[in-house]
Amino acid sequence: MRLTGSLDLAVLDVVLAAEGRRVTGRVALEARVGGTLAAPAPAGTATLSNASIEDFAQGLRISAIGGTIQADGSTLRVAGLRGQAGPGTIAIDGTAG
């Protein structure tokens, strides 16, 4: 089975706005599940682009967020996930699993 598409993250505002949060940007998805019913083998990629997140109560704003998250079975890989917070940059790269 295969799933591809993109999502405008603003659809999450319905849930987040009640908590004083907002998110913008897009995520492109490509997911697939192989293997068997007894032993499924999930894999896929989510690419985040031109995203931002705000938490009004905390005074937090991270903008220009972009990067890739890849899943392959039980391994999760974060590659080049970056964002701007004030004058600084937040960066996440790594592997789990």
Key traits:
97 residues, mainly beta, 6-stranded antiparallel β-sheet
* Major β-sheet strand ordering: 1-2-3-4-5-6
What characteristic shape results from the CA principal axes? globular
* Mean pLDDT figure: 94
SSE series: EHEEEEE
Backbone CA Rg: 16 Å
**Can you count the helices?**
1
Label the structural class. Answer: mainly beta
Note the gap between the termini. Answer: 23 Å
| Total number of beta strands | 6
Helix content: under 10%
Major β-sheet profile: 6 strands, antiparallel
Show unreliable segments.
Answer: none
Description:
It is a single chain. The chain is mainly beta. Helices cover about 5% and strands about 75% of the residues. The protein has a six-stranded antiparallel sheet with strand order 1-2-3-4-5-6, with no helix packed on it.
List the topology elements:
Blueprint: E1 2-8, H1 13-16, E2 21-35, E3 40-55, E4 60-72, E5 75-85, E6 88-96
Antiparallel strand pairs: 1-2, 2-3, 3-4, 4-5, 5-6
Summarize the structure.
The protein is mainly β. The chain is built from one helix and six strands. The mean pLDDT is 94.
